[in-house]
Design brief:
Blueprint (H helix, E strand, L loop, with lengths): L1 H16 L15 H24 L3 H28 L1
Helix pairs in contact: 1-2, 2-3
Length: 88
């Protein structure tokens, strides 16, 4: 049963972090404030999703992955939040 739960969590992780959207631009000067607002919202949702994933992870390997996912998502959100604040 543990393997079944672990497999389901891996499937959920792939669906969670592979949304199929185009890559986020790396230079905020190339996008409008409205587009940047959307990116900030997406990054915030990704961070929330990563936190939820962490809260549900039970397998030690998945917990490690979840911790890294939360850290990455948080830094990404903070970066884009800073970029939108710099526009104002």
């Amino acid at each position: 049963m543990s393997r079944n739960v672990s497999g389901k969590l891996w499937d959920m992780a792939y669906r969670l972090f592979d949304d199929g959207d185009a890559e986020i631009p790396s230079a905020p000067g190339q996008i409008t404030k409205e587009e940047l607002s959307v990116i900030v919202g997406q990054a915030k949702q990704e961070w929330i999703n990563a936190q939820n994933y962490f809260n549900q992870a039970t397998d030690p390997e998945l917990v490690d992955h979840a911790i890294l996912s939360v850290q990455v998502a948080e830094r990404k959100y903070m970066y884009w939040l800073k970029q939108i604040k710099n526009l104002e």
